[in-house]
Amino acid sequence: MPKRSPTPPSRRLAALLAVAAALTSCTREDVGENRPRATTRRSAAAATASSTIAVGDDSPLIVAAGDVACRAGMPPGSGQCQQEATAALIESMHPAAVLAVGDLQYERGEKANFDSSYAASWGRFKGITHPAVGNHEWATSNASGYRTYFPSAVAGGRTYYSFDVGNWHLIALDSNCRSVGGCQAGSPQEGWLRADLVAHPDRCTLAYWHHPRWSSGYHHSDDGYDAFWQALAGAGADIVISGHDHHYERFGPDRGIRQFVVGTGGRSLYPVFGLERRSEVRDSNTFGVLALRLGESGYSWRFLPAAGGTFTDEGSAGC
Questions:
Q1: What single-letter DSSP state applies at residue 268?
Q2: Smallest Cα–Cα separation from 139: which of 97, 176, 89, 86?
């Protein structure tokens, strides 16, 4: 079901993300819709978390990343176990919500590991965290450690759910298809997704799950999530965020949806391999988080590096 037509924003979105361009209407090349074109910028200059708090901008700020915590006792190094650094970044931003997009606790997501490692870093934001389950969480029987640590994320026994932030509808899905009865068209989860989208037709929409539909990284793209994408595109969704590949990547819109891969939460980083179509920006050397300001009729984003990093990527678009 299509969303209502967007109205021009009354103010500029996300001074937080240093994007000053007001959203203006122009053709969306991939679907032919009359919606604002994205304004983007990438930079190698260091970004500071304090610059992300926009005075007078009351639209919600959320942050997202996956692939987070090493098991307890593993020391931080230049290429691994930076969950405390990304947690410090989040803590300085005071977001309204944290989207933890899977593989939150390595190597297996046992409750004891969550309690001894994740809890000491990203666990500081547990009260505002909305997780998606990853394959390392499913490495335990029935994802038992994840279910016990995040009971509110598995209400009714399901590992997928939705909620609202401001004018936006957010959907957390479970991409571990064999564990949840499939991800294909007609599967229980895909049917639930379609029903949820029908029930929320008038909101900007962001969905997230662990394994990316598109990726230029080690694990590559996966067409096993086409049914999710088709359902979201048919409903006019705007953003998909994933992890699993341990790098940052931004894709141009496909059927109206912009995808981000943000597997930079702390565990380790992987190199980028082949270049996937629609890939616009990639970085495999920087731990950090994706910050998004969710406005009434658009959004803006900025990838923020953890301490010592310099890469960033920013932009804005309508919804």
A1: B
A2: 176
Integer Cα distance of 285 and 264 in angstroms:
9
Q: β-pairing, 248-251 with 258-262?
A: antiparallel
- For 190-228, the pLDDT digits (tens) are 999 999 999 999 999 999 999 999 999 888 888 889 999
Amino acid making up residue 25: S
Strands, E assignment, 166-272: 168-172, 204-208, 239-242, 248-251, 258-262
Burial of 55 (0-12, 13-18, 19+ CB in 10 A): exposed
Question: What would the pLDDT profile of 170-190 be if each residue is shown by its tens digit?
Answer: 999 999 999 999 999 999 999
Q: What angle do CA 276, 282, 283 make, to 5 degrees?
A: 140
CA atoms within 13 A on the CB side of 197: 25
Domains of the chain: 60-318 (3.60.21.10)
Residue 253, sorted as left (phi over 0), alpha (psi -120 to 50) or beta, turns out to be: beta
- Run of H or E residues at 293: strand 288-294
* CA atoms of 225 and 93, how far apart (whole Å): 32
Write down the residue that tokens 């910050």 correspond to. Answer: 291
Residue with tokens 């597997």: 263
The DSSP annotation for 27-92 comes to E-TTT--EEEPPEEEEE-S---GGGG--TT--S-EEEEE-S-BPPTTPPPBTTB--HHHHHHHHHH
Q: H helices of 155-207, where?
A: 188-199
Alpha-carbon Rg for the chain in angstroms: 18
